[in-house]
Design a protein that fits this description.
Elements lengths: L4 H31 L5 H6 L12 H23 L3 H22 L3 H25 L1 H6 L1 H20 L2
Helix pairs in contact: 1-3, 1-4, 4-5, 5-7
């Protein structure tokens, strides 16, 4: 069976729309988290923090890059395997990602935020493992995210302990 030029264009359009969909899903998670951080730079600066805590301006650029990697990783797995268990795990970690920021900043519930980020860390681990079976490059795209969440969990724990 021969693939026509029209079939290729339709497939390309579908693939690009899917990439946009993954980007929108990640942007929604970021926006939900962003609702909890409006005007929180002063709040973050006022917290007792460990000496290794990064400045608040660093979070925006880091998360922008990480969200792009998360979207591309999810899209890559979708292209290879469709929407299956690996992308359900991806979706779960994204929901947990959206919940953390309002818990930590909006509610100031540092202990609950720490428990939640541990669940997020585990969901990312499951996602990386599931992606690894489908696409090692997609799994590798999530490693900087997993590392940053590891760092964020340690920072969350430290801030919780210092401000309790």
């Amino acid at each position: 069976m021969e693939t026509t030029r029209s079939d290729r264009r339709t497939g390309t359009a579908r693939t690009l729309w899917a990439l946009l969909g993954f980007g929108v899903a990640v942007a929604v998670a970021a926006a939900i988290g962003g609702l909890g951080v409006s005007g929180t730079a002063d709040e973050y600066a006022a917290l007792r923090q460990p000496g290794w805590a990064p400045p608040s301006w660093l979070f925006g650029p880091v998360w922008t890059l990480l969200y792009a990697l998360i979207a591309i990783a999810g899209w890559s797995v979708w292209r290879r395997a469709g929407f299956g268990p690996a992308l359900w795990a991806w979706s779960l970690q994204l929901v947990l990602n959206a919940i953390w920021t309002p818990l930590f900043f909006g509610a100031g519930r540092y202990g609950l935020a720490f428990a939640e980020i541990v669940l997020m860390w585990l969901a990312i681990a499951v996602t990386v493992a599931a992606f690894w079976r489908i696409s090692r490059p997609a799994a590798a795209l999530l490693l900087p995210y997993w590392a940053w969440v590891t760092f964020a969990a340690a920072l969350n724990l430290s801030i919780w302990q210092l401000n309790s």
